[in-house]
Structure formats: structure tokens, C-alpha cells
């Protein structure tokens, strides 16, 4: 089966936070075609915006999403990246969309400060979680029901996975490829990306 990976984009999203999982899942699909050409592609990646417009990522990086909150395909995996999330935390439509969409996915993951958005949507209560080292105290203070842990590259709680900051998105995305499509493909993807994959979250 081909899993649909949805990555939510918003103004001031950290570029590597969304580009890293996009690259990992896209590369994994190419590598799968080499390793097992008879199989359907394992992943299809879709960038999702609030509406049809150019999203301005951090540093003025313009990105045009594939679809919107109202017209995207059913997602198997939802990835919420970080960046400057203050405005998104104050948007009930976005938080409600995350809360409504996540339960219908196989798993939901956050990169960096995307954990704040998952927490606001009520997806992380009682879970062990992580985020960018600079934002851990804020996450603890704003969401005291979370078990925020320092020092982890990512934390996998089954249906929800959180990662540390920015470049950790590469490691956790490779971990998700391994979970969803196997170790061989994850290792081949890391090799193709010439990346020294940190395979353990701690």
C-alpha cells in the first residue's frame, strides 16, 4: 500500500522541519523503486496549507502547498513541523483540524516546536515528549500534563511521535520509514542521503 504523508505548513515554519521529512519520505520512495520495483510506492508526500496560497517559511522562503485543510486526501501519517508557532496556537481552525485528523491516521508526529500544536490539540496528555532544547521549559509550563524529557532525539509513544529540534527531523523521519516500511529501506534511504542516521531516540 502507498501511505499518504501529510505535512502541515504555516507562515514562519522552520524550513528544515518540513523539508527534512519531505526529503526522507521522497527519497525512501525512490529507493524502494530500486530495491523492490514490483511493489507500489511506499509513500506519497503532500504539503498542506490552511488555504491555497504561498506560505512564507522562516527566512522568507516561499512554499506552495499541494492541498489545503479542506481538500487534502485522507492521511495515513500527519507530520506537524515547528518554527514560530505562536500564531498557529491561537487559531482554533488549525487546532481543531489537527485534533480531528490525527485519530484517523496510523501515526502523528511533530518536529521541534510542532509539539506545542499537538499538545494544544490534546494529543500528548500523559505522554513522554520532546521538543527543541530551547523550548522545553515553555512546553512544560504551558502543558503540565506532558512528560517533557530532555536529551532525546525523538520519543515514540506508539501512535504519536515527537522529536527534538530542526535536524532531528531527519532522524525521526528515518525512524518512521523503518517503522512503516522496514529497516532495509530506512538504511538505504539514509545511505542515499549520505546521512549518519542516529537510530536510537535517546
**Structural classification:** alpha/beta
How many domains would you count in the coordinates?
1
CATH topology: Rossmann fold
CATH architecture level-2 label: 3-Layer(aba) Sandwich
Strands in their spatial order, largest beta sheet: 5-2-1-6-7-11-10
Question: Mind telling me the C-alpha Rg?
Answer: 16 Å
Q: How would you characterize the largest beta sheet?
A: 7 strands, mixed
Shape: globular
Terminus-to-terminus distance: 31 Å
Q: Mean pLDDT, nearest integer?
A: 97
What sequence of helices (H) and strands (E) makes up the elements? EHEEEEEHHEHEHEEEHH
Low-confidence stretches: none
Strand content: 15-25%
User: Can you give the helix content as a percent range?
Assistant: 25-40%
How many helix segments? 7
The CATH class label is Alpha Beta
In CATH terms, the superfamily is Class I glutamine amidotransferase (GATase) domain
Total count of strands: 11
Topology:
Layout: E1 3-8, H1 15-35, E2 43-49, E3 55-57, E4 61-63, E5 67-68, E6 77-80, H2 86-89, H3 92-101, E7 107-110, H4 114-120, E8 128-129, H5 136-142, E9 147-148, E10 154-156, E11 160-163, H6 168-181, H7 183-192
Parallel strand pairs: 1-2, 1-6, 2-5, 6-7, 7-11, 8-9
Antiparallel strand pairs: 3-4, 10-11
Helix pairs in contact: 1-6, 1-7, 6-7
Structure description:
The chain is α/β, with parallel strands linked by helices and 202 residues long. The protein has one domain (3-192): Rossmann fold. 36% of the residues lie in helices and 20% in strands. The protein is built from seven helices and eleven strands. The chain has helices at 15-35, 86-89, 92-101, 114-120, 136-142, 168-181, 183-192, and strands at 3-8, 43-49, 55-57, 61-63, 67-68, 77-80, 107-110, 128-129, 147-148, 154-156, 160-163. The strands form three sheets. It has a seven-stranded mixed β-sheet with strand order 5-2-1-6-7-11-10, with helices on both faces. Strands 3-4 form a two-stranded antiparallel sheet. Helix 1 runs parallel beside helix 6 (168-181) and helix 6 runs antiparallel to helix 7. The radius of gyration is 16 Å and the shape is globular. The mean pLDDT is 97.
Amino acid at each position: 500500500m502507498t501511505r499518504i504523508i501529510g505535512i502541515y505548513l504555516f507562515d514562519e515554519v522552520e524550513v528544515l522541519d518540513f523539508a527534512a521529512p519531505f526529503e526522507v519520505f521522497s527519497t525512501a520512495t525512490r529507493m524502494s523503486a530500486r530495491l523492490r520495483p514490483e511493489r507500489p510506492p511506499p509513500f506519497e508526500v503532500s504539503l498542506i496549507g490552511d488555504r491555497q496560497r504561498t506560505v512564507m517559511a522562516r527566512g522568507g522562503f516561499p512554499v506552495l502547498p499541494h492541498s489545503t485543510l479542506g481538500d487534502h486526501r485522507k492521511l495515513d501519517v500527519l507530520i506537524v513541523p515547528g518554527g514560530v508557532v505562536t500564531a498557529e496556537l491561537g487559531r482554533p481552525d488549525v487546532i481543531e483540524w489537527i485534533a480531528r485528523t490525527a485519530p484517523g491516521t496510523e501515526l502523528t508526529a511533530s518536529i521541534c516546536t510542532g509539539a506545542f500544536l499537538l499538545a494544544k490539540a490534546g494529543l500528548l496528555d500523559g505522554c513522554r515528549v520532546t521538543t527543541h532544547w530551547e523550548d522545553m521549559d515553555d512546553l512544560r509550563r504551558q502543558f503540565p500534563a506532558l512528560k517533557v524529557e530532555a536529551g532525546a532525539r525523538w520519543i515514540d509513544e506508539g501512535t504519536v511521535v515527537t522529536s527534538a529540534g530542526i535536524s532531528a527531523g531527519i532522524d525521526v523521519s528515518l525512524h518512521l520509514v523503518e517503522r512503516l516500511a522496514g529497516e532495509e529501506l530506512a538504511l538505504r534511504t539514509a545511505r542515499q542521503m549520505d546521512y549518519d542516521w542516529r537510530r536510537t531516540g535517546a
